[in-house]
Amino acid sequence: MCNLYNVTTTRDAVLQFTKAFRDRAGWNEASFDVYPGYQAPIVRVAEDGQREIARATWGMPSPPAYVKNYDPGVTNIRNVSSPHWRRWLGPTSRCVVPFTSFAEPDPASKVEGGRVPNAWFAGNEDRPLMFFAGFWTPWKGVRKVRDGEQEYELIGFLTTSPNEIVSPIHQKAMPAILTTPEEVETWLTAPWDEARHLQRPLPGNMLVIVPPQAKPKPDEEGLLL
């Protein structure tokens, strides 16, 4: 499952693509990797009906049967017919999550004695801005025992069957990816019967394998404007 992705874009690009009205995320990193439990920028429709960029923690609430004294969260969601997930299918619980590349573990490339490396995927070699179809919810609970009970806003991604680019590396699933303003609009506003068709593999000609994103040098880092 996708448990790592990279965001290398500008705040203005996300605002323009999604028609978001405001930025509540305070987002200024030039390039960053996102892992489960990290906070990341999302775009959602706020209570006042305005579209906004916010920050949320990656990992939706787990089904109660899997929770003991803490809940690390569920990053990827596929079985939307489950009663646990159905409560979040409506537009008020949907969001889109900007990314420019995502990773899947690649056991076939593992060197003896080394770690399992990641394969990275993007829209093309230029790593254009794309979006995961996501869900979000406010939540109060324990993510880490040492931190105790806290209030969070949580996110998770919709997944689907892998396309011919991802399946040789990860046979079980790939994220549901949105690539046009029209798809973003549908995901954020349409009834579930209209939006559910976006849970589909991205066509193979719209995804390529890319090297890991190079980290900016200290003198190249700057604010995202």
Give the secondary structure arrangement, pairings included.
Blueprint: E1 5-7, H1 11-18, E2 22-23, E3 32-34, E4 39-45, E5 51-58, E6 76-77, H2 83-86, E7 94-99, E8 101-105, E9 118-122, E10 130-142, E11 149-160, E12 174-175, E13 177-178, H3 181-189, H4 192-195, E14 208-210
Parallel strand pairs: 2-5, 5-11, 6-11
Antiparallel strand pairs: 1-3, 1-8, 4-5, 7-10, 8-9, 9-14, 10-11, 10-13, 11-12
Structural class: mainly beta
Sheet with the most strands, sense and barrel status: 9 strands, mixed
CATH topology group: hypothetical protein yedk fold
Helix content: 10-25%
Tally the helices: 4
**Which quaternary structure do these chains form?**
single chain
- The average pLDDT value, as a whole number, equals 91
- Secondary structure: number of strands: 14
The percent range for strand residues is: 25-35%
Run of helices and strands: EHEEEEEHEEEEEEEHHE
Low-pLDDT sequence parts: 218-225
How many domains in all?
Answer: 1
CATH architecture: Alpha-Beta Complex
Radius of gyration: 17 Å
Q: Class in CATH?
A: Alpha Beta
What is the terminal separation in angstroms?
A: 32 Å
Overall body shape: globular
How would you describe what is shown here?
The protein is mainly β and 225 residues long. The protein has a single domain (4-210), classed as hypothetical protein yedk fold, CATH 3.90.1680.20. The chain has four helices and 14 strands. Strands 2, 4, 5, 6, 7, 10, 11, 12 and 13 form a nine-stranded mixed beta sheet that branches. It has a five-stranded antiparallel beta sheet with strand order 3-1-8-9-14, with no helix packed on it. Strand 4 and strand 5 (51-58) form a beta hairpin. The radius of gyration is 17 Å and the shape is globular. Residues 218-225 have low confidence and may be disordered.
